[in-house]
Amino acid sequence: MAKDKTIYTCNECGGTSPKWLGKCPHCNAWNTLIESVASSDGPAKNRFASLAKTAEVTVLSDIEAQDVDRTPTGHEELDRVLGGGMVEGGVVLIGGDPGIGKSTLLLQALDSLQRSGKSTLYVTGEESGAQVALRSRRLGLDHSQVKVLAEIQLEKILATLEANRPDVAVIDSIQTVYSEQLTSAPGSVAQVRECAAHLTRAAKASGTAIVLVGHVTKEGALAGPRVLEHMVDTVLYFEGDTHSQFRLVRAIKNRFGAVNEIGVFAMTEKGLKGVSNPSAIFLSQHAEPVPGSCVMVTLEGTRPLLVEIQALVDMGGPSPRRLSVGLDKDRLAMLLAVLHRHAGVACMDQDVFINAVGGVRIGEPAADLAVMLSITSSLRGKPLPKGFIAFGEVGLAGEVRPAPRGQERLKEAAKLGFTIAVVPKANAPKKPIEGMTIHAVERVEEAMNVVRGLT
């Protein structure tokens, strides 16, 4: 097959050059020329023509809406993040730090799918077939019938997908795959974009569900062009410390399910196992209540999780430190100002440290009230009552605003044995919850007075 001619296109102005240059000759921008395949002048068929289906304009209400069929992977936590399982013709991109467990989890999922009667293919570009076999032995996947292909050339991978027609295929990883149409090295912007586009086309045309493993940068974002995330149907991120036993898989984008769903896994000698009660991970086991500890209920997608917020307030110098792990540092500074102005609790000369136990990251403002109560508890040296929880957003005017789906949060806390709750007034349940005393508050100072009365 004749090799296509390549050109270099400027990302800024769209100008082209037959060779790479440091500065674009058209707009004088630096380092903007990206390699791409030149379009031929002849009437040759476009390589993406199969994606351009012929369709007529249709009224939205006349289109028949059908739920997509899903194939469970055999791992309940992974299915939760995917929205119920793998979708025929769907493309999933999963990224995470090196060694966090991406290949392990996908090999386990492929083995479960194969044992349930599905045809599977594992394409590895980073390891040999013998290394994949050794991993499967370590994971206890004896006599696994998963098909393995050690290949990094895109054209050969596409030919294998066409010949075998698997139900599910894993490409590990997209940064190692290269196309003969381009001269740049594997992992470059042009190669990643071109290879991902061809694999996406193959998935949509054949109905094979394809999972792409992606590398991440040192900041934790997926490496390669941003168009890679727009191209696929689902984007998953592996989170967690490689030194910790627990891993979180979070859905950042999902065309077939809810976003921000999380799956919790524990790394064991036999691979990753789903954790059915993740709240137990994020709660410290104190024999007795300790100062500076407050439990809150956070929502991760549709799942309510109980997380312990810990605060340590200590004597600081002329420039006190403000440090938070798992929460927004700027929001902590704002809450300290509200605490001083509206509740009369001053921490100007104190070091304040905040930590969300278990390595979870809390992005929602419903943690505000729990953070403020834990800071006050540490400053006073008095623990909050046993079985105490709190949640609610705090505004700059000192008001306590409601959190979404407050009833579900309270029911989850009651199920785990919590008996006292301080919540926004708008989240107070109309019917009492058995075994739980609920204090509904409207302002920060009111919440502080309630807690002082309890302690």
From TrEMBL:
InterPro entries: AAA+_ATPase, DNA_repair_RadA, P-loop_NTPase, RecA_ATP-bd, Ribosomal_Su5_D2-typ_SF, Ribsml_uS5_D2-typ_fold_subgr, Rubredoxin_2. Keywords: ATP-binding, DNA damage, DNA repair, DNA-binding, Hydrolase, Metal-binding, Nucleotide-binding, Stress response, Zinc, Zinc-finger. It comes from the Bacteria. ATP binds at residues 96-103. Belongs to the RecA family. RadA subfamily. SUPFAM superfamilies: P-loop containing nucleoside triphosphate hydrolases, Ribosomal protein S5 domain 2-like. Residues 67-216 form the RecA family profile domain. The keyword ATP-binding applies. The middle region has homology to RecA with ATPase motifs including the RadA KNRFG motif, while the C-terminus is homologous to Lon protease. Residues 351-455 are annotated as: Lon-protease-like. It holds the Pfam family AAA_25. This is DNA repair protein RadA. The gene is radA. Gene3D superfamilies: 3.30.230.10, P-loop containing nucleotide triphosphate hydrolases (3.40.50.300). Plays a role in repairing double-strand DNA breaks, probably involving stabilizing or processing branched DNA or blocked replication forks. A motif (RadA KNRFG motif) lies at residues 253-257. SMART domains: AAA (SM00382). The keyword Translocase does not apply.
